[in-house]
Every structure is written in structure tokens, then in C-alpha cells.
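Suppose a colleague, Dr. K., hands you the sequence of a protein chain of 191 amino acids and asks what its three-dimensional shape might be. Before reaching for any lab equipment, you can write down a predicted structure in C-alpha cell form. Begin with the sequence itself:
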Amino acid sequence: MKTLISLILTMGILHAAPEAIFNGKDLTGWKVEGAEYWTAKDGVLIGQSDAKKKHSNLWTEKQFTDFTLKAEFRYEGRMDSGVFVRAFNDQIQLGISSSLQRDMTCSPYIASLGKYPVEAKGVDKLLKEGDWNRLSITAKGPRYVVSLNGKQVLDYTSGTAKEKGPIGLQVHQGFDMRIEFRNITVEAIGD
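The predicted structure, expressed as C-alpha cells, is then:
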């Protein structure tokens, strides 16, 4: 046991146990910004817009520094969503980019730059529309490593990353859409 602890300390990485940030029943621990499009039902967190097609972001009340977020997501049809990393500015896209009019799932969108600085690789072969997809986002300082369905698709270092902040989920304005999330956990990373 001592050897294992020494090895972990030598590697400089400590991980806390994963924390469920969605309880499967309601929005406890979250706050809505924008339209009231978020609900919880049968273990699933649902973001569903209506004919008004307004924006709606769902933010954790808790703030995070370095972490690995794991979640499953599902959608069908035209959808523009994403996961905000510690602030509104840095987002990992899910679905169709409103600006590019094509699927940019797992690519970083940097709002202050108004663009996607890089594109995730191989997503078209991994993404299962209409079925559950496994997403993993590791944010260690400004570096974001993203995996989809068990395969790494992005390794990006952001010049605009915040040190600490909430995690957010998005329903983009201008779309009549639905996205579902389940099994959302965050594992804190220390060093």
C-alpha cells in the first residue's frame, strides 16, 4: 500500500472520488439562466426548447478548478448544445454549430474569439445520434482533453481558460431542440 501511495505522489496526480452532480430527480445543485427549458425525469436531465427558441443555460452552483466530467448525452435531429468549462467563454460543443452549420461535437468553441480554434478528430465515426453517447472532458489548467465513447478526440490548450468556475449545459437559441444528459459526475483532480 505504501508503494502505491508513493507512486501516486511521485506522479503528482491525486484524484478524488467521482461526485454525482445530477441527482436524477430534480435540479438541486443547479441554476437556470435564460428560459426555463430544463427538467429532470426518470434519471435524465432534459433541455428542451419550445417554439420561442430562446437560450437556456444550466449552471452548477458549485465551482470547480481541475476536473474530469463524465456524462452520457443523447439527441436526435438538429441540435446545438454544449458543456461550458468554468465559464461561458470556453465551451465543448455538442451538435450542429449555429455559425458553421455543421456538426462540431467535442470541438472547443471560444466565445471571445468567435470561433472554433481546432476541430475534434474522428467524431463522425463515433457519434451515435438517437442513442446514448459517453462524453469525458478533463480540464487541467488550460488544457482540455475530450473523449467520445471511449476514444480521445481532442487535446486542446485554451488561451482563455478560467482557473475556477461552474460547469454549464446549453440549449442554444434559435433551435427547437431537445438534449438529454444522465450519469453526470465530476472527479476533482489535484496535484
